[in-house]
Amino acid sequence: MSETVSSNQAQSLAAEGIAVQLRSNKKIMWEKFLQHKLAVVASIFLLLLATLCFLAPVIAPYEFDAIDLYNIRSAPSMKHLLGTDALGRDLLTRLLFGGRISITIGLTAALLGSFVGTVIGSSAGYFGGRIDNLLMRFTDLAYSIPTLPLIIVISSYSNTQAFGIVVIIGLFSWMQTARVVRGAILSVKENEYVTAARALGAKDRLIILRHVLPNISNSIIVGATLGVGNAIITESSLSFLGLGVSPPTPTWGNMLMDSQATMASQPWLTVFPGMAILLTVLCVNFIGDGLQDALDPTL
Amino acid sequence: MLKYVIRRTLQMIPLLFAISVVIFSIIQAAPGGPEGTLLDRGMFVDPAAIDAYRARLGVDQPVYIQYFKWVGAMLTGDMGISFQTQRPVLMMILERMPDTLRLMGLSFIVAAIIAIPLGVFSAVKQYSTFDFLATGASFIAIAMPVFWFGLMMQYFFSVKLQWLPVAGTMTVGVGGFMDKLKHILMPATVLSLHSIAGWSRYMRSSMLGVLNQDYIRTAHSKGLEKRTVISVHAVKNASIPVVSVMTLDIARLFSGAVITETIFGWPGIGRMFIQAMHARDYPLLMGIMMMGSTMVVVFNLIADVIYGWLDPRISYE
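Above: the input entities. Below: the structure tokens describing the complete assembly.
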């Protein structure tokens, strides 16, 4: 970053008649992100995939529950590019429709988890003392119960629609964010600008939202990105156990539900939905990696 | 040190109590009692018989009494009676324990043997083709659902190549060492996948941090061979934080075992957990979850103790 100069330096240089191009922080971050080639490729690919999935009602070759009785369990062919399932439903179509739900679940569950984690972590870090102690003991408690078994038990008796799955996954994936946010706030709140804001009479809520959170948003964003991938994988694991979104609504997870039994004769039913999950989560994680590099000013 | 361990152990007690309240509440929130499995099948059952059944299992009493009875019994080592089999939960868990421990133990060893050298070489040859491939592979491994990896392994090694058995712990009537090894190979690989990816990434970054330290430069300038510097000075110091992460992950392997054992029909605690879930066997579910949580809490303490023992710079005061 040798070519970047601070605004003060820029002013003094400009006074000496030297032309300086001042770059904003956002622009620097953006340029750093573009340098992370894998992250850029992953972003483009994911955007493309998500667009295809969300346009599924328009571009999918068939209806998601349309049955082709002449082609039940048929291997990939020109008519059904990725083959059909046990009911003669087109796999490509269902993958596109399923992607809509799986990606939405991943995004919303990660948002919910980050939101809860940010609220708990920032309250603990900012207020300190007994509130901090109480909230962090609560976080320890949530950390101590193995998450996947817990989520499995709760989904086994809950209403399994996409919304329910989002709430369950979101409510049990905030602990990491809470700890990171708390740590970041502890260091940020010692800064003079926070003291200054308080001296000017700013309320706690305003100080947190306006002065503290924007300064730690980097770690929240990176955490949330990685959370998307984890949520997609958790949804697929639940669906594999028969506890995810109930059929006939397709998700990448529930398309894999009964695939183990027919894997020997119809491997495409197992391979393609799994590949879809793998590629999506891989892209999301590459983007998270790129964001981490781009948003960290110390690198 | 001893003082620290005692203090931490005492702190575990309220935490474990809180955990027991959470687990109990979550199970209580489930609609329909243990008789639900009978009613689900559409059987007609005399209401009086249901009442008698509930009374026998003790689920007719107020919730708080049920809780205190459960916790009180647990303090004496009694985890209750399974709804399904009418046998003590503790006994059922102990019966399944050896198979789960065998699987988890082998996964742990396999993961450590692969992950540590992988991380070390990646760091020493930073930005080389090897580093690039190892990093790529670990990204892919982390992005893969465990169960799908298991299914793919079954497809290739059992269906296509027919090298390894699809499921189970041994062939009935054979059961020799080689036979058992063949059966455990796939589940152990699947269970260790995420650990290999995670630990090797961790080892790599820890190693990179150490290689920049002054004492490594000193060791080089003393004229020590590169191999000696890396294996004696660097790896030893770099593995301190990794060992503590590995210890924490032992308890997390249990979550993975739930999925892995289900795919490979492995008769361990993880598969029993899924069976208990389907059968609404609440005492068994609570017992297994309590056991899993206790493992997390205990390994947390062990990880902290090991960290301080390996790194004398850490003080416990």
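Note for the figure: Chain A is about 70% helix and 0% strand.
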